[in-house]
Every structure is written in structure tokens, then in C-alpha cells.
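INPUT
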Amino acid sequence: MGTTLYQRLGESAGIARLVDDVIAAHLANPIVKTRFENIKDLERTKKMATEFFCAGAGGPQAYTGKDMLAAHKGMNISEQEYLAVMDDIVGAMGKNQLDDGTKNEVVGILYSLKGHIIRV
Ligand code: HEM
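OUTPUT
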């Protein structure tokens, strides 16, 4: 049985699946869809998001993307948009049948990042 967060998320394959579901949810979410429709290279963003989640969950991958402040600087992301993104991530974790403890751990990590993303 998995013990680290990385293992409980299904390692890189599980996390890549989760990121696909999260981006699909963002593209269907009226609060944030335009933000994601406007991304020029969505495959690259998905790859970076997968690396970020893997590394943040304790996986062996190195994260090669921008830090959260640099990635979101100048976008003027609102609190409402941030919550919408968190809701999409929680929804995708439910769809992938992750347990409550795992979901809560991810929510805690995401919440801790908000100061680097909202209105920066
Ligand atoms: C919940 C916490 C969030 C995390 C962990 C996160 C993570 C990331 C990561 C890893 C990237 C890729 C950085 C790179 O390309 O080097 C990224 C890009 C991006 N994020 Fe976020 N993000 C979060 C919240 C948000 C929110 C709330 C929005 C807006 C509604 C947003 C919009 C974007 C956009 C539009 C890009 C692509 C920028 C571009 O390359 O064109 N993110 N994010």
C-alpha cells in the first residue's frame, strides 16, 4: 500500500491523469475557462503541472517550470478564480477515487500557495 502522497496519487501516471481531468474541468468551468483557452501550448502547461505535482508530492521528478509567483505574475487572478481552480482539482480527485485524507492533504498544499498566485 502506498504511504507517501506521491504513491497515493498514483505516481506519475496517476498524477498525469489527474492533471488531464483538472484541465478539462477548467475548460468547462465558466469562471476560469477563458484563462485556459488562451494558453498557447497547453501540452507544455500540462507537462509542467504534472512535474509540479509530482515533485510537490514527494516524487523523484525535478520541476523544470517557473515558480508559482513567476508563472502567475501580472494575470491579476482573483480569489474567486483561485477557489474555482481548487474546486476543479477537488472534483478531479473525487473522479479518480482518491481518499479523503489524500484530498485534504492536497487542498492544504494548494491553499498554502495562494499568496504566490492571487493578484500577484
Ligand atoms: C491552485 C494553485 C495553482 C497551481 C499549483 C498552479 C500551477 C501552475 C503551473 C505549474 C503552471 C506552469 C508554469 C510554467 O509554465 O512554467 C501554471 C501555469 C498557468 N496557470 Fe496556474 N496554478 C494554480 C492556480 C492558477 C489559477 C487560479 C489560475 C487562473 C484562473 C491559473 C492560471 C494559469 C495559466 C493561465 C497558466 C499558463 C501560463 C502560460 O504559460 O501561458 N493558475 N500554473
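end of record. The chain has seven helices and no strands.
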